[in-house]
Design a protein that fits this description.
The structure is a single chain. About 45% of the residues lie in helices and about 10% in strands. It is mainly alpha-helical. Strand 6 and strand 7 form a beta hairpin. The radius of gyration is 23 Å and the shape is elongated. The N and C termini lie close together (about 10 Å). The structure holds zinc ion. Zinc ion (ZN) binds next to helix 11.
């Protein structure tokens, strides 16, 4: 049996702070503000949230003037004016209420396309504020809670440094070259590494069907149903140091629908059913004396139980690193296992 592991609240919180493609530092500012604000009720009104939030942003602007990936931001301009004493706190608060929360409250709980358990509810319409949930109070009680403030701060600094140098904070991610129909990755030296050369070998087991939904796929590229090489454990985990995701044991062939875009797997963790399927697939390579046999044995273990333990530990590590409430499944799929 494989075990479907659920991440803890502190893991969800860290995922919010550590993951995702931020276009502005407001998520860090909100996380920091929530940890700092000593609310005497679960409701925090926007007028009470706005000033500490804006002051956190203003303080960071003093160190690093780049706080959004876009060229300009009206809200940041008001924070700068506050720093240079052109406007007072009341004005900063008013502008923060108006301009500071445009996306951050909506997007706060979204991690890699998934909604994680909520630390607050958005009640701006009815109550002119947000309501802290039980999750938030539980989080503060966790043994890790004293670290959260430092973690937000250090992640924020790293992020602003990266964007001011023009480097992606998530340096290592899967890229799709639509023209050559190829997925590739960048290694730490920023060199492009193709991961699409294993198609022929992988197809031996899958026999022309998508690993996830069983739809017919073509190895030959350039057709509507041409396949993609998919990382079972998302490529994103490469930077986590948990595993080498570019190895054969972790690569499967998937239809475009399962691999990419809306409803696609992309950076998510697949449902446990597919871990069984991956285990079966790897065992097949070993037992059938497939050309990839030695590779799989070297990468995952000599015995069946070694290989199973290997996959379980990868799964646990992946769930910790990319937490989400729901594991990914294709919309239409064959029945795999009960
Ligand atoms: Zn599919």
């Amino acid at each position: 049996m494989f075990i479907d592991k659920d991440p803890s609240l502190s893991t969800y919180w860290r995922a919010i702070v550590l993951l995702g493609n931020n276009v502005a530092s407001y998520k860090f500012a909100l996380a920091k503000t929530l940890l700092e604000v000593q609310a005497d009720s679960t409701l925090i009104r926007m007028e009470d949230l706005a000033l500490p939030f804006a002051l956190n942003v203003a303080q960071h602007l003093e160190h690093n003037d780049k706080q959004v990936t876009s060229k300009s931001s009206k809200f940041l301009d008001y924070c700068r004016q506050y720093n240079s004493e052109q406007i007072a706190q009341d004005e900063l608060r008013a502008q923060a209420i108006k301009l500071g929360f445009v996306n951050v409250i909506d997007a706060f709980h979204k991690v890699s396309g998934n909604e994680v358990p909520r630390f607050f509810e958005d009640k701006r319409k009815d109550e002119k504020g947000i309501i802290l949930t039980d999750n938030f109070y539980q989080l503060l009680k966790s043994s890790q809670s004293s670290n959260f403030g430092y973690e937000v701060e250090s992640r924020w600094r790293l992020w602003e440094t990266a964007i001011s140098l023009g480097i992606s904070p998530n340096l290592i991610q899967v890229n799709a070259d639509i023209e050559s129909n190829e997925l590739f990755v960048h290694n730490p030296e920023a060199r492009r590494i193709s991961i699409s050369s294993s198609r022929d070998a992988l197809n031996g087991y899958q026999k022309g069907s998508c690993f996830y939904c069983s739809k017919d796929i073509l190895i030959e590229q350039g057709y509507e149903n041409s396949c993609d090489v998919d990382h079972f454990f998302p490529h994103k985990l490469k930077s986590s140091g948990i595993m080498n995701v570019d190895q054969v044991w972790n690569l499967v062939l998937a239809c475009k629908e399962c691999n990419r875009g809306e409803g696609g797997k992309f950076e998510r963790i697949a449902h446990l059913d597919f871990l069984y399927a991956l285990n079966d697939r790897n065992n097949y390579y070993v037992e059938s004396h497939h050309p990839l046999r030695e590779t799989i044995v070297n990468q995952t273990g000599r015995t069946e139980s070694d290989r199973k333990a290997f996959l379980q530990s990868m799964y646990n590590g992946a769930v910790e690193a990319i937490p989400s409430k729901e594991k990914w499944k294709p919309r239409l799929r064959k029945e795999l296992r009960e």
